[in-house]
Amino acid sequence: MGCISQIVALVAAATLTACHPASKPQPRKAVFNAAEYVPYERQGNGGIQGQAFLVQRNGGVVVGAGRDVYLVPVTSLTTELYERWIVGYTVLEPTDAPTKQFTKVQVGDADGRFSFTGLPAGEYYIWCTINWEVPQGYITAREGGIAHAKVKVEDGKVTQAVVTRR
Q1: Can you give the residue range of the structural domain that contains 149?
Q2: CATH classification at residue 146
Q3: CB burial class (10 A; 0-12, 13-18, 19+) of residue 78?
Q4: I need a surface site. Which of 8, 51, 57, 70 has the fewest CB within 10 A?
Q5: What DSSP string runs through 78-127?
Q6: What's the number of domains the chain is made of?
Q7: Which of 67, 28, 26 minimizes the C-alpha distance to 50?
Q8: Residue-wise pLDDT tens digits, 27-65
Q9: Does the predicted TM-score (pTM) go above 0.85?
């Protein structure tokens, strides 16, 4: 790499570090409440179909093709995760709460579409990380973010979800 390229890369790295310092994981405030998960322990007959995408500054659309789409029930613990990390980008300390069985994952198809079936009635958070690279002179910057939505599922019905960032 030439001297100018190295300088540009160092200045860009310093600027990004200054604007977005590596953050220390923050303590969680919410605690696991097993009773909140009871309605989600059974197999249901509801579903969610949707599409995950983000809109670029220039108006282009980037879909969640091949990206993991996560689904969790709305509880105190997941609301904190959703509000502080998904929406607010605050890194949180990990939890040892037994919630893995309640987290469902699908992979977005070529159009960023996904489907979850067999869901009990209730409210759910959905999110998908979508990133792309943008050339900026001698370097390439990553842009994107976390597309997200909160949806309500009813017995025997399929809810349509638009998973994006507004």
Answers
A1: 3-163
A2: 2.60.40.10
A3: buried
A4: 57
A5: HHHIIIIIIIT---B-----S-GGG-EEEE--TTSEEEEEEEPSEEEEEE
A6: 1
A7: 67
A8: 999 999 999 999 999 999 999 999 999 999 889 999 999
A9: no
